[in-house]
Structure formats: C-alpha cells, structure tokens
Protein 1
Amino acid sequence: MANVVIVGSQWGDEGKGKVVDIYTEYADQVVRFQGGNNAGHTLVVGNEKTVLHLIPSGILHKGKQCLIGNGVVLDPQVFLQEIENLKQKGYLQDDAQLVIDSNAHVIMPYHKAIDIAREQKSGARKIGTTGRGIGPTYEDKIGRRGIRIADLVNPESFACKVREFLPEKNFLLEKYLGGTPLDEAAILEEYNAYGRILAKYVGNTSLLVNQGIAAGNKVLFEGAQGCLLDIDHGTYPYVTSSSTVAGSASIGAGTGPRFLDQVIGISKAYITRVGEGPFPTELHGDMGQRLREAGNEFGSTTGRPRRCGWFDAVALRYAVRTSGMTGLAITKMDVLNDLATIKLCTAYDYQRQRLDEFPNDLEILKQCTPVYEEVDGWQSDLSEAKCYEDLPEKAKDYLRKLEEVTGCPVILISVGPRRDQTIQLENPFKD
Ligand code: GDP
Ligand code: IMO
Ligand code: MG
C-alpha cells in the first residue's frame, strides 16, 4: 500500500490544494502536518471555488477522514469559520470526518499582535510574513511555553497558562514593540467559547493515522508552503517557521518515516514568491506583469501580488534533493499559452562561476544571476486538454525539458484551476 506526501517545491502557492483534492479520490485519510493559516489552498470544482487555510484539502470528498496533525499551529477562530463555510456549502455534514490533534499548538492573540508589531518595527528588514502569528507560535512551542489544543478544551489548564504567559507577552508588546497590551479576561472569555465548540473535533491523529496504515488505508500527507520556505533548507531568514520538506510529514503527523512511500513535489511551470527574500529568476518588467495577470498571481491568504519569474531548475533540483521527491506535478501550464518563447534557468552565475547546485549561503544566492535556456512556446490554448496526446508537441517538449533539468519524472499536468483540467500520467498510490 502506498502513502503519498505532497509538498510545494518552490516558495508556496504551487497548486498543492488542487492536487490534494484530486488525489483524495485514491486515499482514505488526508493529513495536514505543518504550518497554519499562513497557507491558502484553493480548490475549484465546477464553478465553485473553496479556499482552505487549515482544514485538509480532501474535505470536499465525503467519507474521507481529514486530520490536522500535531505539527500544525491552529487559530481557533479561523478554524471554526472554515467549518461554518464548508457546512454552508453542504460539505462536512458528518463531524467525525474532521479530527484535530490535541498536541497541535494554539495561535493566541498575542502571537498575531507580536508578528505584526515585529514586522512593523523591522522596517526594510521585514520578512513579509502573513501576519497570522505563525512564527511567534512556533517560537513558543520550541520554547516550551506554548498552549496546546488539549489546554484549549480544558478551561482550568487554559486559564492557568494564559495567566503564566501573558505578562511576559504584554511586556514585550508594550515596552519593546510599542503595541497595546492584551486583556486576560477578554482572551479567556473568547477562547473558552472556541474551546467548547471545538472540543468535538479533538482526538489523537497519530493513533488514527497509524491504525489506518495498519488496516491498509492509503494516507495522503498534505504539506503547506514550499521547500524554499523551509526553516532549515529555505532561504533563511526569509522563510516560514516550520519544516516544509517531506520529512516533516512523519513528525507532524506522528508516524514513522518508513510509511512515507512517495513524495510528489508540486511546481508551477514558472515560479512565484510572496513576501521578501532573494529570487534569482524574478521578472521585474512587463513579462513579470504578464505572468501575474495570466496566472492571477495574487495571494489566496493575504491578497498580496505575487512576485513572478521563470522556472528555476537549480532551486527545483534542491527541492527534489531535500524532500526526496519521486515525482512532480506541473501546474499552470496554461498560463504560458501565449508566449512565443519561454526561458528556464538551468544554472546560476556567481562571480563568473557556474553553479549547478543551490547555494547554502544566502549572501551567495543574493549575488547569483540565472543562466537561461530558451525554448519555443506552444502559442495555443491548453486549458481544455484532457490527456497527454491533446497537448501540442512544443508543450510536451517543455515538459520533457523540465524532467531533464530536474531529474524527476512529471506524473501530473495541470492546465487550469478546475478539477477537470488535469492530466494524470501516473497514479502515485498504485502498488
Ligand atoms: P497552494 O497554496 O499550493 O494550494 O496554491 P494556491 O491555491 O495558493 O494558489 C494556486 C492558484 O492557482 C489557485 O488560485 C488555483 O486555483 C490556481 N491553479 C491551480 N492550478 C492551476 C492551473 O493549472 N492553471 C491555472 N490557471 N490556475 C491554477
Ligand atoms: P501555501 O501553503 C506562499 C511566506 C510569507 C512570508 C514567509 C513567512 O498557500 O503555499 P509566515 O506568515 O509563514 O511567517 O511568513 O512565508 N508564506 C507563504 N507564501 N504560500 C504560503 O502557503 C505561505 N505561507 C507563508 O509570504 O514570505
Ligand atoms: Mg497558497
């Protein structure tokens, strides 16, 4: 039986949500294992669009169990809102479909306030975070002063922890960051109400996943963000605060690495980034604008315009290496429909030296310029292509080129946002 990990292989927003929605058909359980509502995963079924920030992208499939693992950080307000939106649309009619691990950490109001105030104070050196409190929540988790879901649903334990931690947070907020201190009673009242509603979704997801695997279930692990935003392997400090590479699925879902059979990296046919940080193939002029418009490149979470650039094979090879990818899903091929020529970066130039490997040192990366290869565009509409044979020869050439320069086989091609705009070449769940 195969279990499959889906990760972003660029700087996020590659179309992970869409691919997870498609692969859920073959899976029994879908697990989010890291990140929080900094993620925005878009699913389009027919004409209906759903954007999920916390709930796994398998939730539109009735009867498939969706789990939020211990590795996730959860904002209860956003979580409950997302549940309500889904129920209104007729999904999640059975509450047992959704389980959140009691060890997942809670994003508190002070985490959001600190995230925003720090960014403001940093000025030009800001990270460009989503302002959702992700970094400060993971800091507290590692600092052993976090509040977990188990505490949230236990009012005594919750009050005790808020009383212990809030004075230090208010001191930081008020005296160092120049913000407004938060009121303890207001936090308790608001969060106790969340705890009461949320309690029915709380469980032990590690146990459920492992029991599922033992019973022969197929598990789909849903990553958020992308490999280049990984806290260790990404373009630090311009990264998110969790491990986004495939190995994180084991820790964030509470199962052994030997159960992660396939790793599928999701990548656009070009590349985008939201927030600050180096981006060797970024296009600043008309071409960048053209990709942004054709690809509707505006953030699903914050609405910020995404920075756009040509496909970066150096970065992608690095993502293949750090996540051990076994296949690639290439999305947004249709965005390149009109282009007469397409560039792809196959190496970097650093002080007149050719680099084939992504540099570890950010100071080197900042000085790298792309070495491009140029290929012909297909200049026709791919958006109604239903199978590989429907693709024009030049689109097939581009896909073959991507396989060659990344060393990883393409197993899925996406030609539009809708579920039915997908060409599957291989099923990663097959034995
Ligand atoms: P995620 O964070 O990786 O799940 O990706 P997002 O949902 O943030 O961003 C991907 C965006 O591209 C969404 O608006 C999707 O609906 C859209 N999308 C996904 N695949 C395709 C595709 O093949 N073509 C086009 N045009 N849009 C796509
Ligand atoms: P999905 O799952 C794209 C980026 C932010 C910022 C950096 C740190 O939809 O692909 P954070 O709020 O996490 O502390 O911000 O990470 N970022 C994302 N960019 N897609 C995402 O998620 C992202 N989640 C965080 O823009 O640069
Ligand atoms: Mg997104």
Protein 2
Amino acid sequence: MARIGVLTGGGDSPGLNAVIRAIVRKGLNVHGHEFFGFTYGWAGVLSNEGIVLDHQSTRGILHRGGTILGTSRTNPFKQGGPGADGVRASLEARAIDILIPIGGEDTLGVANRLSEAGIPIVGVPKTIDNDLAGTDFTFGFQTAVQIATDAIDRLHTTAESHNRVIVVEVMGRHAGWIACYAGLAGGADVILVPERPFDIEEVCERVRNREQSGRTFSIVVVAEGATPKDGDVVSEHSGGATDAFGHERLGGIAVTLEREIEERTGFESRMTILGHVQRGGTPLAYDRVLGTRFGVAAADAADEGSFGQMVALRGTEIELVPLSDALAEPKLLDPRLFETAEVFFG
Ligand code: F6P
C-alpha cells in the first residue's frame, strides 16, 4: 500500500474531475492505495494543505467542470522559491510516497524537475490548448472547441444580419489547435494562428473578396497568441502582467484586428473575445472518457512504479511517455489541418 498525492495545476480544463475520480477509484478499489489531494496546485503542496481523496470526496464529480482540488500557477522553482527540497519536506510530512500532478507544460515542467531530483512522479497531461507534445489529445480540448464552435454559429447570425465582419478570439498561446478546429467546424472565412504570423492586408483582401462575390459578412477566428508579421504578441489586456512561470497574460489581438479591418476595408467590424468561457462548464463526453482513461492509467503506472513518465493518448491507445519528451517543444498545429481549413477561406 502506498500513499499517493494528487494535484491539479495551471488553467482549469473540463475533465479534470474525471481524472481525479478515476485515479482514486482504480487506486483504492483495485490497488488498495490511499490518496491525498493537495489543493491549489503546487501552492497546496508547499503549504501542505489539502483533502483526503476517497469514495466520499470523489463522488458525483464526473460531469462537473473545474477541479474539486482547485488550481493555481504557483511555481516552487521560481527565484527564491523552496524548490525540490520544499516539496520533499511537505511530502515527507504527509508520508506521501508518490505524486500524480495533473497539468500542462508548467505543472509538468515542475514535475519533471522533481522527478530528476528523485521524487516518484507520474504525470497526467492537461490543457485545453492541446499543445502538449507526447499525446495526440488532451482532455478539455474537445469541450473548448465545441464551446467556440457554438459561439461562432451564434456570431454568424449577427454577422449575416448586420453585414458585419466579426472577429472571434479563442485561446491558444503557442498553438492554433482551438482556432483551427473551431474555425473549420464553424465555417470561418479566415483563421489566424500563432504558427503563421499574419499579414493584415491579406486578411482584408479576403474580406473584400467575399464582398465582391456577394457575401456581405465575414467571420475571422483568431487565436490569442497569433501575431502580425514583423510584430509581437499584442496583448491589450495584460498591462504587462506575467505569471509565476513568466508567461505574459494574453488577450486582445481581436481588438486590434477589429479596428484595422474596419479602417482598411470600410466594413463595419466587431470583435468577441471568448476567454475563459472556453474552459468553463460541463465537459463533453469525449473529455470525460479521455480523463477517465488517463486517470486509470496513471493509477496503474503509479502502482507499477513507472515514474518520471506521463500517460498519453497515442492513436487510440493510452501509453506512457517520458515527461522530458513531452516537455521538449510544444505540439504545434498540424500544417495539413490548416491547409484543409484554408480551402474554405474567403
Ligand atoms: O494554457 C491554457 C490557457 O487557456 C491559455 O490558452 C491561456 O493563455 C491561459 O491558459 C490563460 O490562463 P489564465 O487566464 O487562467 O491565467
């Protein structure tokens, strides 16, 4: 019997509770381990706060968004932070043998450093952005895509009725997966992604082309991390703020696009920033199933002692991949998918 700590770090992602439930259900019922959930990511580890995870505390959470453990972007390795020694001290104080962090590049980056320092770790990948290498998909992505697609469908109606250009900003810091999937599904006329810096004149040209062929409205989908050619990420909202991992707070490229498109084309333009709406609410069935499969596999990996690895979806199978492989580079948008979307641009 082992004592296993669980935490959720970084942005919340629909399906997190499915993972927690699955880890605990498999680990308790089949392997006979005990579980403790640290609250608010690495913050809970450092302050040694949390809750016992058992049948009672993980009941009725499968369909709930967010995370019952809470989350944060706390970084134990930030300058002056307690580092691996601080984490080890907390784990010892609670007699935790193994840690299962559920998170994205930052949370798993910390996990990898702790693993290198000798702490037994099994990671679970999480991000709505779907930009973690080593896994074909992360849970939460499909839900975010559906929310964005529903929003595009609704905005289509207004764009069409008012003869407007509507710019829809979706999440996607390094990669345009949400923009491309939702743009494809929602019939976007232009999709702008971080992987392909855009030329504002080209965007306007597509909008003009549509007008000339009798279509009096356009939908432009833009990922928050998209940049103009020869430009930096335009963040209208951050005021220069960064998180504990040094990431700038994004949001607002759509504000610039709305203004530029209207000024350059003369067409009335509006923008909508979907923001955290994409991370909230009920997970789709796909994300509940993927989260559950990840959770069961993570409990098995912990039981077998497969440390320094994370669970991953490869094709249709759940496999284990070294944490270091997953963290080397972000998983950027498949160019073939973007080329498919481009077929339908204005
Ligand atoms: O990493 C997921 C993500 O949704 C990014 O797309 C976005 O830049 C970031 O989280 C925003 O997170 P928050 O506003 O919660 O700090």
Protein 3
Amino acid sequence: MNSRIEPLLTAKARGHKIAMLTAYDYPTARLLDEAGVDCLLVGDSLGMVVLGYPDTTLVTMADMLHHTRAVARGAQRAPVIADLPIHSYDTPEQAVANSRLLIEAGADAVKLEGGVSHAPQIAAITAAGIPLVAHIGMLPQSVREEGGYKIKGKTPEAVEQLLADALAVEAAGAFAVVVELVKHDAMGPITKALRIPTIGIGSGPDCDGQVLVIHDLAGLFPWFTPKFVKPLATAGAVIRNAAAEYTAQVHGGASQF
Ligand code: KIV
C-alpha cells in the first residue's frame, strides 16, 4: 500500500478524525497541504465550482486527469484522492483502466460513487493494487435520475440499504467511505458497523472524518452555499474587493502597476 495512504488506514483505530478537503489546482493543493489537511480530494465537484456546469455529470476523464496532475504537483505530504467521473467505471475493466490513468496522473487513490451495485468495480480496482475510497448516500452523479440532492436514510428500510452499501464497499476492499447527505441519526450505527472510516459530508458528527468542498468552506463560491456548510472565510469577497480596488486604481491613473 502507498505510504502516503498509511496514516488514513490507521486513523480510525487511533481515534484520529480525518479532515479531507477538495482541491482542484496547484496553489490550493499547496495551501491545504501546508495547513495540515489529512487528504485532498480532486472531486468531480470541480465541474460545478471550477468549470461552471450545473452538476457533475458533464465532467470527463480528461478534466479529472488535468486537475489531478495540478493537485499532485502541489501536494507534498497529503495523499491525493481523485474521483472517477460519471461513466468512467461502468464495467470493472473500464474502472481499472481509468483508475490506473488517475494514479499515473499523480493520485494516491481513487474514489467512485456506489455501494452494493458497484462492489464488482471496487473489488477489481483494489485487486489491481489501487487504493479506493467509496462514496454512498446521496450520489451527485445520479442527481438527474434522482431529481435533486435528497437526504438519504429517512426510513428504516433506507437505513438498512445504506448499511448494506457500507458493508459491501468495505468487503470489496475500500479503505474508507464518503457518506453524503445522510440523516444524522442514521450515521452512528453505520460508523460503528464498519472497520474502515466513514467520512461524512452533510451527514452530521457521528463519522470518522469530514469532507467539504474547499469553495464552500472558504466562501469562494458565494452564489450558493449548501445548508450544512458554515464557511470559515470569505475568499470570494476578498477577491472581488481586490479586483474592484485594482480597477478603481487603474481607472484613476495609478502608476504602481
Ligand atoms: O466531488 C466531490 O467533491 C465529492 C465530495 C463532495 C465528497 O465527491
């Protein structure tokens, strides 16, 4: 197993809560790495917060490879996990081939969306020696079929299905599982049932770690902030103000530039 992944494998046993953030470019990766973030996710959320698409379903392997290379250049210490985009892992063979490309681009591990339904892909990728993070709960790549970003785990049957998904991805070889937008009181039993860490996003405190989109945390996408995020900075306002000040200075004939 890749040595950069090692601390993530032992985190749950050590009681260390995993702090994961997305990064899509070199300077952000370098800043987050310097800040001590445990791992960086080149999420296909880049389709929305970097490329301006309405959701993640237009993101391609070419996009993911381009951004993974940039993030890998900036991450000196933190392991880099890269998302397999929609339709890049429809079959186990395709999943392995595309995972290899992401690893060659500098990722230490890959992530895909799906539970029981994607156990064959997860088993094939991990059998090829590629570390994998699974992603269950609300699956952004299925947003069009689902008709929106809906909270999961609202009924006992839905919680049973989530538990089955979580156990299936663990059994297939995932070393961690992202659990998105799951009703908070469903998370405790899932986290307890697994040996691998649960990394929540909008799923409450009963997870072994948390992940957020850096643009949401830093206030860098001020036009929309998910309900479960409390931004810790106003980077969007900082950039807008600097640009307005620069424009005013240039218009006023400032010579400092
Ligand atoms: O694409 C992404 O950024 C993700 C996180 C939201 C978990 O999958």
Protein 4
Amino acid sequence: MVFMSDCIFCKIISGAIPSQCVFEDEFVFAFRDIAPQAPVHILVVPKVHVESAAELTDENSHLVASCFEAIAKIAADEGLGGGFRVITNAGLDGGQTVFHLHFHILGGRTLGAGLV
Ligand code: AMP
Ligand code: ZN
C-alpha cells in the first residue's frame, strides 16, 4: 500500500488521526468532513496515495471506479435518494487543499444549480 508519511488522509486511513468512518473496503475509505458544507458531507478516498485527479493513469484509474461504487452505497445509506453532488478539486487552481485524491459527497439539502 502506498503511504505518504506527511499526508493527513494517509494518516486518517491508517488510524493515526481519528475520523468518523462511514465506509471501508479493500480499496476505499470514507469519513465525515471535519468542516461540513452541507448536512451530509463525506470524503471518499482511495487507500493508495494518489495526489489528485491529475495523477490518474491506466494503472490506478480502477480506484476511481471503486470510489464511485462506494459513493453509491454511502448515498443510499445516508438517505440521499433525492440527490447529491460529487466534487473533486485538483491542484491549487482547482481549490485542492489536501493532496490525496478525494471525492466530496454533498447532500441533505437542495444544492444550487451552479458549479462554482
Ligand atoms: P479539498 O479542499 O478539496 O482538498 O478538501 C479537503 C477537505 O478535507 C476539506 O473539506 C476539509 O474540511 C477536509 N479535512 C481536512 N482535515 C480533515 C480531517 N482531519 N478530517 C476530516 N476532514 C478533513
Ligand atoms: Zn495520502
């Protein structure tokens, strides 16, 4: 398993930093965002350290499928049948602040139609 010792999400996955885990399987870990921007705000991350969506290749893109399979399960478990939003920020201009690939699930209220 690729692990970056200075990565906060790698530390959350390993348990070195506590989190409110909502889902875990072989490839994916999901936990509640510490600063929620909606009633449901969950981060879904691959257990392998991948920096961002810009680092995806033929070799690791299966992790994205695993993340989205988890997202579907989590959304159902969280009662988001009315809809939800999935966001990934990539790079500084994309607003990324933690450089371990993650997908935000936002839901539990009606979200605006805009993207930015
Ligand atoms: P981004 O800006 O897309 O890189 O998102 C990083 C997210 O990680 C933000 O929404 C933060 O609130 C969240 N975050 C940072 N530290 C933690 C933590 N220890 N536990 C849970 N969420 C965190
Ligand atoms: Zn990491």
